[in-house]
Amino acid sequence: MPSPALVGRASELRILTDAMTRPPAVVLLEGEAGIGKTRLVRTALARLPAGRTVLLGYCHQIREPFPYGPVFEALRDIAGRLPGRLNPVTGVLRGHLPELADALPPALPPLDDTRAERHRLFRAIRALLAAVGPAVLVIEDLHWADDGTRDLLRFLTDQPPEGLAVVATHRRENDARSPLSRAYLHHPDTTSVVVPLAPLGPDDVGSLACALLERSDLPQAFVTRLHERTAGIPFVVEETVRSVSDAEQPDALDRAGVPLLLREAMAERMAGLSPPAAAAVRAAAVLRLPASEQLIIAVGGHSAGLGEALRAGVLHEQPGGRYGFRHALAQQAVYDAMPGPDRRSGHERAMTALRAVGSPPLVQLAFHARHAEDTEAWLHHGTAAAQQAAALGDTALAVEVIEGMLGDPGLPAHHRGPLALMLSRFAATGLSHQRVVRLLRHVLRDDFLPRATRGEVRLNLGVVLSNQAGDTAAGRVEILVALKELSDRPTLAARGWAVLAMPAWGTESLETHRQWMARAETLVATADDPEVAAAVLANRASFELSVGSPDALTIAARLPVSDPRTAVRRQVARAYNNLHDSATSLGLYAEAERFAREGRRLAVETGAQYPAYLLDVSTVRRDWLTGRWDGLRDRASALGELATETPLIAVDVWLVLGMLALARGEWDEAVKHFRTAGLDAPDDRYVPITVAAAGGLIDLHLARGEFDRATAEADASVARLRRKGVWVWGAYLVPSAVTAFAWSGRVKTAADLVAEYSAGIAGCVAPAAAAALDLSRGSLAAAERRHADAAGFYQRAREAYAALPHPYAAARAGEGAARSRLALGDGGAASAFTELADAFTRLGATHDAARCRRVLRDIGVDVPLPRGRRGNAGVLSEREKEVARLVALGRTNREIADVLFLSTRTVESHVATVLRKLGVRSRTQVAPPG
């Protein structure tokens, strides 16, 4: 019986083919099993113009911890298509793609930072795909992909190479989520479509059956019955029709069995096979995944029988010399038809064969042990598989394995507690949290755990909610309940109190946090548990440095950094992350860099993903503060791309992106980033970052002349800071709030805040806060027209910021000093504004630079911007680049004029020049300048 032409998919085929031929493109092909996704893709590929590289990768239902495996599988056969010279970054792929080693550049030295290493790997894959373009990358069955592959595909679909079309097929049956875990935001120039495949209607089912049977028509009763029985699923239609001997017979379909599950259809086909061939098919059904000839034979097949099954079309050859079923439904039909004892003995043989493999696939071994009813082997291989996955950083697979075991009614009751506990411990050190939270809550609802075990599981759930999920309110509820359940386990209770004691979360006062920390230290002193003792000490050191305590660094020096136990050093890695974050906020940048260096080393040594990622995002904030702005926006955005499941722990990234947007006059973008950094729910977010974001938002309102909004935000934010009582966190809020109050006529409020801030940071080790105090005093004095005092305070602040160093804040303080000198009639103010405009420009703070140049124009000093290269009329000047950037963001001429301190008429002239130089007719065609 011939394979039919594609039926009923003309529209979908046209959309898919058009997208493939107009890269960059991203196509998600959705539909249930057997709906025809693979056939549609193959038909579209056959229609592609010559010269396109086609790359095929497959995700499998039972997978081992091999992140990015489907993509690497697709890339293995492209050696002959690679150009002579490749991007040097592709050298990192040598260890992953040995087949291409001779064609790749030299290997690059590994990076100490695992996150940076992963991002470099992603860039290398993108560069390799760009080199073989135009290309079509097809990833089949994305619903079975590992988290790493999903992350990589998100990266590629967010920023696809110019010549690449990505096509992914996936089922969307019981899981309503996107296959990429979120609605991806594609580049405006990327063709992006989702193609849902629905079952065929009665007419198309009839057309498909006619094509299969090589007939021009069929009895209407047969077609109607066929549609009812198959629900219009093309693969089931095909398998059913192939088993029908005579469509004219009224009972032809009834005799074909139950087509939706293919049981009778597959039974008919199996009956036509010789015993060796049937044995090979049954062995393949037991193995479930496509397997080698040797493995199929070991499980019960025969080489000659395998060949017959392939010739009969019951089994199909897969890439890599593996053999399996055309579709999972066919495999299930054969498997279900096997007698129970035969299935069990087949799984036993599969276990024996897989144990002999050099690196035994533990997940598959656990699967076969369960179905062989070998509980001891099932638990052994399952827990080993989960531990191996967690050690390799694939927490999602570890969770998946344990979830399957906990959800199995055959799991003995006395094994459920240890597995639930293992799951909760894995979760506390990984990044993935959504499935973990759901499963742990389900386990706790079942109430089968002993009280003490339940308390530890609940405590770990609270930690995951508070940290990875960023849901402090929910996490705190779980921790408080866990503390009651841990009344007989004071050591673990100490860990719970230490978590609650961290002042950067919640709305409690600093005094309350101190009481909780004291309680934790009292409890941990009564027990001998090095890991929990290290956890409490880590939180104590983090607590003290976060509030600027003079004793903090002394306490931090007691951390057991050289302890031989991995679990203990993992707590130190977490502490160093916290210390780096606090030192960055306080302006102790040298100490912060040391904590980051040691923290990364320990995180890599101990496999602590969560601290490693937080070090990345908080380093981005340190780079912003210390003036390392070159490429910072791209680095921050790249980290944000990786925070798909954990956006609330990437708040440093959103803060930095907001501050960079503010410095460039990108108001809408800045507001969006500040809200994501914590202002969307300030009582539930990370307080130091939320406070800083509030300072940025106040500055934004002031820049736009929105004084009522500025003072409203200042009132709310200062009230939250006052309630918490950690005034050193006000370094990036108080100066902005004082300015808003003072310049809105609320001078007494501003003066009271300066006095309160001064008292709040007294005795603290917080250089950034001390500089901010002088900046606040300068702003207050300027508002009161005490210009000489203001100039002195601003100059002191400038010198303090420069010493940190915090060059942007230093320039802002210098601007305040220059304005005060100008008010005093100081002739040197003009040169100061010229220097400041240059300093802001070097940083990339174009809005601040334009503000300084506006002052110079007002006092009659002409400071021209650098122009494009002489003799090249098509090159944009620096001013034209700024205008083009704002045009690309959709700003009106009036808005651009406000940002750049120009007249609307001047902006109109610049816009016209930009359009002419870029050779475009419309503002919407202007792309952001590089």
Automatic annotation (TrEMBL):
Gene3D superfamilies associated with the record: P-loop containing nucleotide triphosphate hydrolases (3.40.50.300), Tetratricopeptide repeat domain (1.25.40.10), Winged helix-like DNA-binding domain superfamily/Winged helix DNA-binding domain (1.10.10.10)
Residue windows of the TPR repeats: 651-684
Q: Does the keyword rRNA-binding apply?
A: no
- A Pfam family that the UniProt record links to this protein: GerE
Q: Which GO terms describe its molecular function?
A: adenylate cyclase activity; ATP binding; DNA binding
GO CC list: cytoplasm
Flavoprotein keyword on record: no
Q: Name one GO biological process term.
A: regulation of DNA-templated transcription
Query: Which keywords does UniProt give here?
Result: ATP-binding, Nucleotide-binding, TPR repeat
- Residues annotated as coiled-coil are none
Q: Which InterPro entries match?
A: AAA_16 (IPR041664), P-loop_NTPase (IPR027417), Sig_transdc_resp-reg_C-effctor (IPR016032), TPR-like_helical_dom_sf (IPR011990), TPR_rpt (IPR019734), Tscrpt_reg_LuxR_C (IPR000792), WH-like_DNA-bd_sf (IPR036388)
Give the HTH luxR-type domain ranges.
Answer: 869-930
Q: Which PANTHER family match?
A: TESTICULAR SOLUBLE ADENYLYL CYCLASE, TRANSCRIPTIONAL ACTIVATOR DOMAIN
Kindly provide the name given to this protein in its UniProt entry: LuxR family transcriptional regulator
Question: What organism is this sequence from?
Answer: Planotetraspora thailandica
